[in-house]
Amino acid sequence: MSDEEHQFESKADAGASKTFPQQAGTIRKNGYIVIKGRACKVVEVSTSKTGKHGHAKCHFVAIDIFNGKKLEDIVPSSHNCDVPHVNRTDYQLIDISEDGFVSLLTDSGSTKDDLKLPTDDALLTQIKDGFAEGKDLVVSVMSAMGEEQICALKDIGPK
Fold it and tell me: Domain range holding 100?
């Protein structure tokens, strides 16, 4: 057909989507939802009746899973909302550096060195105190939408 060569530049990343669509009316308390581009855990859902202008509306109150801020959104119950893919992974804590980064041991035996200590003061002191005492600590890392943060701590005994 044509003797010309075509070159296409792709800017898309290959990989799974950060979110998936779900009908607003099916999202329940303790589920996840994206509000204002942030991954959130739903703490309250209320649904209004269908009114003069059609749709029943869902009022979501949710807490950002990374910074703890409260966000709200109102969506018609028949419309789709973005729901983030949220994963929790446990890693063994190896070291804490002076600049606030942690060194974690993965299941495959390699290390993960790109995570900072959590901003939550109670969790931060638990991790630092436990590490200073020489305890074997396992941290739970929550990841969603390209963000990761330490969200919990388990003490599996002394080293």
Answer: 86-155
